[in-house]
Amino acid sequence: MKIIIVGASGTMGQYLTTILEKENHKIIKANRSSGDIQVDITSPESIEKMFKQAGKFDALISTAGPTFVGPWKNLSDQTFRTGIQGKMMGQINLVLIGQQYILPKGSFTLITGALTHEPQRYFANASAVNGAVEGFVRAAAIELENGIRINAVSPTVIEDSPQYFSHFPGEIPTTMKQLEFGFRKSLFGTVTGQIIIP
Amino acid sequence: MKIIIVGASGTMGQYLTTILEKENHKIIKANRSSGDIQVDITSPESIEKMFKQAGKFDALISTAGPTFVGPWKNLSDQTFRTGIQGKMMGQINLVLIGQQYILPKGSFTLITGALTHEPQRYFANASAVNGAVEGFVRAAAIELENGIRINAVSPTVIEDSPQYFSHFPGEIPTTMKQLEFGFRKSLFGTVTGQIIIP
């Protein structure tokens, strides 16, 4: 399979790249400032350019999603836009634009997170934009044509990102193996419109 | 109670206004172009102005939420913004700004809808922005101070809006009475962070 990984330089992206390359999938690494293709997901033009460079593909994985993290008192219309432009519209535009470039029976797998339903202090922006992406995934699944599927993977805090553990009291970290299996279900399975809790 | 109803001229808003005025609550009707105060919820400045005019209040109900409704092929970064500016950030800004004006132990009640989990053709924008508002409600509930509560009411298609029935095959319409009870639970109950399915 030819798989575009957006956010390939991150903790999850690197892990998935290594695993999938070992299985001889062709991975196109797309990052903001490194990898095979540079992409700024906050810009629809940059996303369009990425797909033109990448050519037809079988699957897209996104592990990219900037959001505003910080004290509630700093949350405003302006700071809220970090997550809207990033994790929300960044990922939604990957699908709205990418559907013109993906092969029939291809799949999109986006990233959300437990914060949708399990809020934590400082992360209201992520709770909202995760919820948006999850609503979009369910709706896109009934609209996408040519057998194209779409799912989201929704981990808790990631095992390999211990720097975040203290922000997620009570959340059992998602192991890298669980995360991998979540993405496998979307990539190689038949499900669509699902929020996969790995 | 002094209650601001944003979207008081709509089907839900009118119904709730009539019911609550009969019970001697003071209702401030806020609409785009009529009512006691005019407000454009897509503008944070207009929202701020509304709260300054209204003065301290006990509860805010929002039944307002423009979204893009139309064929999937017309869904783009640009058309998606209708719901982001309207039903999503419009309602989120009512809370982020309104928290400075609401009385201690006050409540915010926003509107989402079954589309969050039950998508229908043409309504992907609403599914996404409903999901965003619901994620926000759960997160805001753990952040708001002074005993201020926040919930969302999530109806299916509204009994008194039969013009939409054909777009919601399989959805049993929410009666006006059920809707009223959903809002009552948030207004007069003690729950917070809930998505109330009336």
TrEMBL record, chains A, B:
Single GO MF annotation: oxidoreductase activity
CDD domains to which the protein is assigned, alphabetical: Lin1944_like_SDR_c
Matches recorded under InterPro entries: NAD(P)-bd_dom_sf, SDR_DHRS6-like, SDR_fam
Residue stretches spanning the membrane: none
Pfam families tied to this protein: adh_short_C2 (PF13561)
UniProt keyword annotations, A-Z: Oxidoreductase
Origin superkingdom: Bacteria
Gene3D superfamilies, per the entry: NAD(P)-binding Rossmann-like Domain (3.40.50.720)
NCBIfam families: PRK07578.1
Sequence similarity: Belongs to the short-chain dehydrogenases/reductases (SDR) family.
Protein name: Short-chain dehydrogenase
